[in-house]
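Researcher: Here's my situation. A collaborator sent me these components and asked whether they could plausibly form a single complex. I don't have experimental data yet, so a predicted model of the whole assembly would be a useful starting point for our discussion.
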Amino acid sequence: MSRAGIEPAMPPQAEHPGPRSRRRSPTRTRIGLFALALVIATLAALGTGAISYRKLAAGDALSATVFAGPGQSVVLGGYSYRLDSFGVAASFPAEDSGDPVVRGPRGSVIILVVFTQTPVDPRVSPDDHSCIFMLRGPAATWEPDTDFTTLMRRPKLQTCSDLDDDPLRVGRARQIGVGFVVPAAAAQQVTFQASIDSGRRLLELHR
Amino acid sequence: MSAPITAGQTRASGRVGGWIGLIVCVIASLTIAALSPDPATDVRRAYVDVTVGSPASTPATTAEVTSVRVAHAVQESYGDAFVSRQRLVVVNVEVAVRQRPRTFNSSVTLRTPSGDDYTPRDEFVTADLGETQPGFTRASTLVFEVPTDRVAGDRLVIDADSASFDVYATALRVDLGLSAQTPVATKPIAIKDSTVMVTP
């Protein structure tokens, strides 16, 4: 009889713990899964909240962005845009030569952005074409002025939409002038933006 | 001695526990939904409370009520005086705007202690807050018409920007210091158009 034959058989789990002994209890597993679900849900809520808040804080959610400087032309969504001038001054001449110059409040400047819009793609319908103009700085956003610049000399057209008396037609250029009034201290760092077609495109015009 | 629990009994117990957990969660969700206020009707606000002469700020706005008067009549620079059989609460306020343009039309009210809100009289649109651009301060005059017995304890509320989240936003609330003994002006109070200046 061999020596091995008389040794008592050891329980296999004592020296070599098998899978059953390493398995966590069902209760601990449930708590762990619950905690994991809680963490994922919290992260998802924080993530979506942060994204929503950033969109809200930044204004419109924009997809395509095109930039242009003075004299440059760019094509965006079937339209060509050329920045003609980016005027910044404390005062501008009035439309009627007999009227006094146009000024904003003391300490402010007027910014007049003049650009030319030309439809270049015959497949694009002008019917729903629209723009929202704004001036963006590092810490603030301005909308076109409706108080101080109404009597200023500038292009009559202040919208990029199709008009009966100034229609959008392929190859026909239209000049648009948009006026803003901003504190003088903020004027050096601003950029003109046009959010086009309900925010699907963004045109940025730089000084 | 009890019989040993079999694997089948353990699985069955687990399934029952899962269903109970699911039902408890559904009941909890329904209870929370039923008890929670409707954000469309019960708008939550955190208020910054100040008194006349003290500025109140949120990240986007700073407002200061500079004076408050009570009168029977007010007078613009043109036309006839506006006369009321009730009380006219005339509030001079300066509001500085930051970040983005603000239109205050529907967000400025006079709130009585009982919670009723009065909007400014719209005859004086050129004097009210209107739209103000960032970096500018608008000084304006608001005219509220309220019943005589609702003047005492009134507060001016400048609500959060309409572009803010509709709940849990911050509003400004100014105690106007009005009481039943507040004198009523005997002559019409002059109302001037609002003015805009660059915020110092």
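Model: Some features of this prediction you could bring to your collaborator: Chain B touches chain A at residues 10, 14, 98-101, 131, 133-136, 163, 165, 196-199 (CB under 8 Å). Chain B has a mean pLDDT of 87.
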